[in-house]
């Protein structure tokens, strides 16, 4: 969601005549669009703010940290000139000007955020994120999202379809529908519409070859979603379904609204209704009061579920959440125990991921290439099942649709060779302005 918000920040700035630079020291404005879900994400921002060396630049912080900490950011990082909420994005150019004279704090009402009404400068043409709802009303006990992004608001269905139509007419072939809990889409409408229907409509838009979505919540998922996934080849057979903990006791304290059996029933149904579906998940270890036996329940669930991939997190204490208040009552887990549990569950999942990837070797897959790999002469692409494929840079331009043969599998990714460039990279006209302002983020 944040990466997509950044595409809007870029869109607004570029419309106002700014140009992006990848060299922060060259930038007139440096913007940090931040995440507060875990302390480690915030620590990275504090570190980067310390490291800012350029003089005369405007340094801005927006996103969840801006919302959570407001003016306190100026105290801890005096170099920051501007703290703003993305709901104030329409005023960004004026805010930048004002903040050249004094520090500016601009936070509006988060529930009024209409970020999708702003222009977008998308990172990719072929694959595009399309938010369908904002905020979250689930209030899992450990999570800051409902506080920093507000209560759940569904985006009008007509607006979503119009955006997908317009993307498809520009050549986008993949849309990724975004929401903290896509399954509860439309419940706030007078005439509710289910997420499965949204998927069905979006998949029927001419030119759209792939529809993906995230994130799903086990409690709100309806089995009609799996019917649509099975019947519509455009709906990709991938489900990201966080389970967080395998222990019923911990799940209760997390306020997740389901128990382990409920979760297992959902994924068993998913596999029955959509053979070959790829399943990924999120796991938190070290939640307050988590005993060795609770943790073993998590390991057992990982073993039983056989996920394609899992994002594993150590519980991070977030002020003012319910879990934060529970820490004294239930007991904090030591950093050493959290790390041990993290490593143990990572080791188990790594083995499962590595084994699961082997089934792809020798197959042909359609891959959309998205970015350069950090290491080696490769580009990173994704299959319809959302598996990562590394392809040789010399044959595979970024932002293309490629028919690839999978030649090898590793710990977390597949490797392949290019068979056919199905849709080549679109060439964008170069910006022509000479004396432009530069921004970095
Ligand atoms: N500590 C650790 N992980 C968290 N997540 C959310 N809040 C916390 C927290 N306080 C994880 C959950 C969620 C993912 C996006 O981040 O697993 O699904
Ligand atoms: Fe946070 Fe997801 Fe729970 Fe919403 S459903 S409160 S975003 S963990």
Structural features, described:
It is a single chain. The chain is α/β, with parallel strands linked by helices and 441 residues long. The protein folds into three domains: 2-112, Rossmann fold; 119-358, Alpha-Beta Horseshoe (pyruvate-formate lyase- activating enzyme); 364-423, OB fold (Dihydrolipoamide Acetyltransferase, E2P), CATH 2.40.50. Helices cover 33% and strands 22% of the residues. The protein contains 14 helices and 19 strands. It has helices spanning 2-15, 39-51, 64-69, 72-76, 92-98, 145-148, 157-170, 195-203, 224-231, 248-254, 260-273, 292-305, 322-330, 335-357, and strands spanning 18-20, 29-34, 58-63, 82-84, 104-106, 127-131, 133-134, 153-154, 174-178, 210-214, 238-240, 278-285, 309-314, 364-372, 378-382, 388-392, 401-409, 414-423, 437-440. Strands 1-19-2-3-4-5 form a six-stranded parallel beta sheet, sandwiched between helices. A five-stranded mixed barrel has the order 14-15-16-18-17. Strand 2, helix 2 (39-51) and strand 3 (58-63) form a beta-alpha-beta unit. Helix 8 packs parallel to helix 9 (224-231) and helix 12 runs parallel beside helix 14. It starts with a helix and ends with a strand. The structure holds 5'-deoxyadenosine (5AD) and iron/sulfur cluster. Iron/sulfur cluster (SF4) binds at residues 136, 138-140, 143, 145-146, 180-181, 217.
